Amino acid sequence: MDDWLQRPHRRLNPLTGEWVLVSPQRATRPWQGLVEAPAQEQALPYDPTCYLCPGNARAGGMRNPAYNSTFVFDNDFPALVPQGPERARDEQGLFVAQAERGICRVVCFSPRHDLTVSQMDEPALECVVETWRQQASDLEQMDWIRYVQIFENRGALMGASNPHPHCQIWASEHIPNEIAKELEGQQRYLREKGACLLCAYSSAERGRDRIVCSNSSFTALVPFWAIWPFEILIVSTRHMSSLQELSGVERNHLAALLRAVTRQYDALFAAPFPYSMGFHPAPARHSRDAAWHFHAHFYPPLLRSATIRKFMVGYELLANPQRDVTPEVAAELLRSARA
After folding, report:
1. Which of 123, 180, 186, 339 would bridge 291 by S-S if both were Cys, CB 3.0 to 4.6 A apart?
2. Per-residue pLDDT tens for 253-303?
3. How far is CA 169 from CA 83, 277, 284, in A?
4. 28 exposed, middle or buried (CB, 10 Å; 0-12, 13-18, 19+)?
5. Domain spans of the chain?
């Protein structure tokens, strides 16, 4: 494997069936591109101008209650709504469109404006995980909902429009692209190998140098096929398909691992680490699926420091994702970061 860590090669993502080009010899190339301003954390526990803080008016005109834990509300500016066009469109297979109904919600993690996942204590994060579980359960009971995507964008570099700690939930009528690819990848592996893909993968990773941190219920690692420099995959130890299947202990362990991962991110470059994070449960009505294994993805954009990020441009957009720093080096750097 040493030769693989020095020379260009490509790696297959069995979840999606897609390849990533790994170019370790480029890791030391000089950088004269864009250097971002260092991210700054908001220090105020309450911001009177924030539309997510307790008691404040939101941008849509509604006023938040004086909440003291997690707070969930329907997004005032949703990307999906419960009503859509009545007719589908298909003209010669060239102009194809169909309705996409859905529900969008916002989850405020805490009334504190100045806390992030890495700074919250574990009981507060356990409450957040329980809120996610309840929301997923409630939304999946609607017979027209096919997928519930819970995701967090942290930091301005990832498009977060408000620094108050929060995430979004988009529940859609159809299965999204990435989920469809992962569903096919996991079902294909089960057909061909007779086993769960992520059960087999997480077992094969034990003792290897891509694991960042773990507990008895979850493992966080830089996947062999990672595209983003410090990408992390979180995999449940027990085979399960959804958040709803979490036991009380597993809920607490997931909260603890999320806190550990985000603290290691922040420690790596001694700065608030931006990322997009999301859970990938099975599509609705695929519960107890022997192929689907519950997991989560962290996609952070930083490359060499808190001010230099990875761009998906040029070859990446037109041909194939590519990375310089190997997943093995990235995992070692994250393990070595002192939170």
Report:
1. 186
2. 999 999 999 999 999 998 899 999 999 999 998 767 789 999 999 999 988
3. 17, 12, 14
4. exposed
5. 9-25+40-336
- d(CA 77, CA 60) in angstroms, rounded, equals 8
What's the pLDDT at 32? Answer: 44
Give me the architecture of the 9-25+40-336 domain, per CATH: 2-Layer Sandwich (3.30)
Cα 20 from Cα 9, distance rounded (Å): 9
Q: Report helix, strand and coil shares of the chain as percent, to nearest 5.
A: 25, 20, 50
- State the catalytic residue, choosing from 166, 253, 286, 295: 166
Residues 6 or more apart from 26 whose CB is under 8 A from it? 324
* pLDDT for residue 335: 95
The question of whether 174 is a catalytic residue gets the answer no
Backbone φ/ψ region at 287: left (φ over 0), alpha (ψ -120 to 50), beta: beta
pLDDT tens readout for residues 146-172: 999 999 999 888 888 899 999 999 999
CA distance 235 to 246: 13
CB 278 within 8 A of CB 152: yes
